[in-house]
């Protein structure tokens, strides 16, 4: 399976511009014959907790239809980040598009303490299946939570993919953690970060992938880029 990590700089609050940028990356991933493309945390709005309520999407939001169309057009799975409103609660979510399928949503189940004033956690299945592979999803802070890893062995997960918004120190800690997960569970791990300003911090990019032997196989610098991984 080829997995694309879309490391980009989202514009804070500019959903229209961010959708266009997402579609450009999806075009590039499809041209590279990727099977699954993953974007950073809250990529459609940028990571801006203070703006999340006013920018939140609904489950049946018409603005997401284009991604369903692109998924089917390219026979490509897509995972992108957005704030989602359910019953007047705002959640950090990943919208997952698969060809000729309804949209799935993975909700961030474990929040950092700074996020509680703005978001609510929500239990959901963190494992998706595509092309006979099981992919375990994590959103940022969840990579640190032991309970979030409990189903990896039981479900015989093939890949672990994290979508984050982190500054330099946070990325150093995240890489150490994902290397541990790779080594402990003997699975490939991939992480995509955004770049540029988000919530008054400078996100540093540096997205990466490790193989099942805890060896780094690919990484990016702080610039916008698309990383294609032959994940095996």
UniProtKB/TrEMBL annotation:
Q: Which PROSITE patterns match?
A: CN_HYDROLASE (PS50263)
Question: What processes in GO biological process is this protein linked to?
Answer: putrescine biosynthetic process from arginine
- Name residues in a coiled coil: none
- Domain CN hydrolase positions: 1-232
Gene Ontology MF terms in the entry: N-carbamoylputrescine amidase activity
> What CDD domains does UniProt report for this protein, alphabetically?
nitrilase
| Name this polypeptide is given | Carbon-nitrogen hydrolase family protein
UniProt keyword terms in alphabetical order: Hydrolase
């Amino acid at each position: 399976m080829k997995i694309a990590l879309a490391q980009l700089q989202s514009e804070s609050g500019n959903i229209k511009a961010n959708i266009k940028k997402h579609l450009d990356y999806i075009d590039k991933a499809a041209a590279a014959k990727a099977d699954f493309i993953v974007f950073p945390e809250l990529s459609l709005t940028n990571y801006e907790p203070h703006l999340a309520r006013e920018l939140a999407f609904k489950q049946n939001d018409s603005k997401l239809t284009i991604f369903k169309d692109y998924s089917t057009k390219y026979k490509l799975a897509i995972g992108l980040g957005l704030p989602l409103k359910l019953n007047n609660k705002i959640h950090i979510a990943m919208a997952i598009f698969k060809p000729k399928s309804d949209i799935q949503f993975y909700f961030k189940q474990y929040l950092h303490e700074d996020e509680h004033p703005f978001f609510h956690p929500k239990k959901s299945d963190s494992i998706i299946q595509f092309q006979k592979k099981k992919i375990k999803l994590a959103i940022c802070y969840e990579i640190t939570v032991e309970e979030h890893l409990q189903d990896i062995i039981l479900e015989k997960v093939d890949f672990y993919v994290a979508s984050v918004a982190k500054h330099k120190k946070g990325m150093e800690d995240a890489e150490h953690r994902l290397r541990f997960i790779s080594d402990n569970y003997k699975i490939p791990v991939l992480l995509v970060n955004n770049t540029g300003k988000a919530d008054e911090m400078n996100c540093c990019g540096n997205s990466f992938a490790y193989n099942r032997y805890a060896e780094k196989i690919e990484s990016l610098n702080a610039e916008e880029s698309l990383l294609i991984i032959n994940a095996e």
